[in-house]
Amino acid sequence: MSYGLLAGLGGCASVPETPPGVGSALIEGLGFQHKVFWHGDLAAPRVHVYLEGDGRPWIGRTQIAADPGPFSPLALRLMARDPNPAILIGRPCYHGLARSPGCTPWLWTHGRYSEQVVASLAQAIQQALPPQPGRELILIGHSGGGVLAVLLAYRLPEVSTVVTLAANLDVAAWAKHRGYSPLSGSLDPSNQPPLPPTIRQLHLIAEQDQEVPASTLARYLVHYPQAHIQMIAGTDHRRGWIERWPEILQALGL
């Protein structure tokens, strides 16, 4: 890579799960650092932008994790299998950055979808990608990353499509289903103004998902009747996606 902040801010700690052929670097968002991973030509006219899930914000039900990063980052593995130019923008305080400036446990617990998180991610995306007039961005998020993808779509004019996988798009209903206290510091897509109809929404539901069952999405679907919902057979919240990802992308026209 030969341009912008991605070239100049390397040197951060490696992540063991980084797939072969994927580059990584550290960039600045809005008040936070972000680890980014990419492959392909990010100056292409269409780029897929991935967002990882919530990882491990808690250990059990009472102890906050010191580092929320996932042991096995699904969105990163999906990005590595995507044949299109693609980048994953790490969330604030994730990927070994839990002790970096500005980070507190609130940002991966009750504030995991907060204004601070969304604003910094939006800034990081703009910093990470080279200027390209007319570029089209496809936001792709797994689980809580899907929540962030929808929230980011309001802020990035280049977004044409939002794809979510097993995403808890009604945050309040999901928290109630899981027996969690309300995420009072977080934004909830089900309470936001509707996205412009020009943004295509593709929400993929895992057939065997016990963490985010389809029943928790009812209020979101009333809010967005134009959203396309598709059940993916043979999947649960994490399993069954990686092997089929290129096939799923092709079926979605992506």
**Major pleated sheet:** 8 strands, mixed
The end-to-end span amounts to: 24 Å
Low-pLDDT runs of 5+ residues are: 1-16
CATH homologous superfamily grouping? Alpha/Beta hydrolase fold, catalytic domain
Structural class: alpha/beta
Task: Estimate percent helicity.
Answer: 10-25%
In words, what does this structure look like?
GO terms for molecular function: hydrolase activity. The protein has 254 residues and is of the alpha/beta class. It has one domain: Alpha/Beta hydrolase fold, catalytic domain (Rossmann fold). It has seven helices and ten strands. Strands 1-2-6-3-7-8-9-10 form an eight-stranded mixed beta sheet, sandwiched between helices.
Short synopsis of the structure:
This protein has 7 helices and 10 strands. With 254 residues, the chain is α/β, with parallel strands linked by helices.
What is the element layout, followed by pairings?
Elements: H1 4-8, E1 23-28, E2 33-39, E3 46-51, E4 58-59, E5 63-64, H2 74-81, E6 86-89, H3 115-128, E7 136-142, H4 144-153, E8 159-165, H5 171-178, E9 200-206, H6 218-223, E10 228-232, H7 245-251
Parallel strand pairs: 3-6, 3-7, 7-8, 8-9, 9-10
Antiparallel strand pairs: 1-2, 2-6, 4-5
